[in-house]
Structures are given as structure tokens and as C-alpha cells.
Write a structure and sequence with these properties.
Order of helices and strands: EHEHHEEEEEHEEHEEEEEEH
Helix content: 10-25%
Largest sheet: 6 strands, mixed
CATH topology: Nitrilase/N-carbamoyl-D-aminoacid amidohydrolase
Structural class: alpha/beta
């Protein structure tokens, strides 16, 4: 897997999509089978341009360009997009197969309160069964819904890997040497990964937020991968300029048949293992 920790500029879809196309091509050359991109990477999180520039999925230009990139390079692509559906705008994410087919569309369920005036709420979760394994999809704050109810639901639905496009931001004066970023996500992902023997793969963008309620904050990367023991195995660099591609080998853990109680199965298999 390649995590594309890319710079996202608010309200600049052509520039952001061109960068994503370049990075997807590079990830494919680097041997990735799946390229994971950040939350609403076309327009930026809560950027006011969502009101006028949000496009339909899959027929809008942003999704069509990502579908073409998946086909051109023969890779799965997962990315956050700003979706227009009728009168509503959603903070959405797509999973595309190497033929450019849309496998999953997820609309963020647990949006932060400051995002509610802009984005409508999603009402479902999904898992796609692929030749890479069962892949679940969520977005950013879905991961710290109370008691991790959304990510645990994906575990019960059979996900062996949870993909999470994200946009992790800090105040402009945040000092990472004093308060290292990322504990909130390790605390949210680790227990679920351990209980369901699944992987969490979350990629954040980098760059300044220039519009909306968090204008002046910084998106700082720190993209994170947690393995099925709950252990972080990769964390991306911190900073508004920390654009990079992070490669990680993800090997989904074989799961028992449906209905066997995966959490109990995993607990039984690891009861004597160090945590």
C-alpha cells in the first residue's frame, strides 16, 4: 500500500487532482497495489468552495479522473472527495478497483460539529471483498465515534483492513516537540485492530487551511498504520511541508467464517500474547 500524504490546497480542484494523478503514478511505479489519498482531497476539508464546486460521484470530474488513474496504472485507489447529491453536499470517500470501477462510496457519519453546516450526514457503512482482502471504508473522525462504534461495526462486517482518508489539523502555534501529534488516533485504532485482528490505514493531507471555520490551522500529515496486534507500524512525518509517499506491506489476517464471533476468536488466539 502507498499512503499519499499530499498537500491539499483549499478550493483548487484542478491542482489537487493533478498532484494526485502524479502521486498515484509514482506509487504504482513503486510497486503499490493500493494508493490511499486524504479526506476531501479535491477541495479541502470545510473549504467554502464545497458549496459551488462539489461534484457528483461517480460522474463528476474528480471521481472520473481518479477512475482513469486507477485504470491507467492498474491499482486500487481510495480517496476522499466532496460529493454533490441533489441539494446535499457530502464529505465522501470512494474505493476504486484497478479497472476504475467504483466498489464503495462512503459518506462520513461522525462529522465534527463545525462541519455540519456544510456536509450532510452519511447513513451506512460498507465492506468490499477484493483480491486484496475485505476492505472497509471510513473517514477521519468516524474513527473516534463513541466506543469506536463505526470502526467496530466494520470489523463485524468482515473488514480485514480499514481505510481512512483523513485531514488532521492543529492550531497554527502547535509545538510538536511538546505535544507530539497522533495519540488520539493510536488510542482509537489500537483496541479495534487488536479485537478484530484487522489493519488500520489512515492518511492525512498537509498544508494550511485557508478557508472555513478552521482557517489558519495547519494540516500536518502524521499518517498512521496500525497492525492487527494494535501496534503502530508506520507514522508519517509532521508538518505543512511534509508531503511524501509512505509504503507499507499490509497482510490481512485470515478470518473465521461469518457468524463465528471474530472478536472472541481473536481474543482466544492471543490471550497469552504480549500487548
Amino acid at each position: 500500500m502507498a499512503l499519499l500524504q499530499m498537500q491539499v490546497i483549499g478550493g483548487a480542484p484542478d491542482r489537487n487532482l493533478a498532484l494526485a494523478e502524479t502521486l498515484i503514478a509514482e506509487a504504482a511505479r513503486g510497486g503499490a497495489a493500493l494508493a490511499l489519498l486524504p479526506e476531501v482531497m479535491d477541495l479541502g476539508w470545510t473549504d467554502p468552495s464545497a458549496h459551488t464546486l462539489a461534484a457528483p460521484i461517480p460522474d463528476g470530474e474528480p471521481c472520473q479522473r481518479l477512475m482513469a488513474a486507477a485504470r491507467a496504472h492498474g491499482v486500487y485507489v481510495c480517496a476522499g472527495l466532496t460529493e454533490r447529491a441533489g441539494e446535499s453536499v457530502y464529505n465522501s470517500a470512494v474505493l476504486l478497483d484497478p479497472q476504475g470501477k467504483l466498489l464503495l462510496l462512503h459518506r462520513k457519519v461522525n462529522e465534527l460539529a463545525i462541519g455540519h453546516p456544510m456536509y450532510a450526514q452519511g447513513d451506512r457503512l460498507g465492506v468490499a471483498h477484493t483480491d486484496l482482502g475485505p476492505l472497509g471504508l471510513m473517514i477521519c473522525a468516524d474513527g473516534f465515534a463513541r466506543d469506536q462504534v463505526l470502526s467496530r461495526s466494520l470489523g463485524y462486517l468482515g473488514a480485514a483492513v480499514i481505510l481512512s482518508p483523513s485531514a488532521w489539523a492543529v492550531p497554527a502555534d502547535h509545538d510538536n516537540t511538546v505535544e507530539p501529534y497522533g495519540q488520539i488516533w493510536r488510542d482509537s485504532y489500537g483496541p479495534v485492530a487488536r479485537d478484530f485482528a484487522l489493519w488500520f490505514c489512515s492518511v492525512s493531507n498537509v498544508g494550511w487551511i485557508t478557508g472555513g471555520p478552521w482557517s489558519g490551522r495547519r494540516c500536518i500529515g502524521c499518517s498512521l498504520v496500525v497492525d492487527p496486534t494494535g501496534r503502530p507500524v508506520l507514522q508519517g512525518p509532521y508538518g505543512v511541508d511534509a508531503q511524501t509517499i509512505l509504503y507499507v506491506e499490509v497482510a490481512p489476517v485470515p478470518r473465521p467464517a461469518r457468524g463465528c464471533g471474530w472478536a472472541s476468536h481473536w481474543a482466544a488466539q492471543t490471550s497469552g500474547a504480549p500487548r
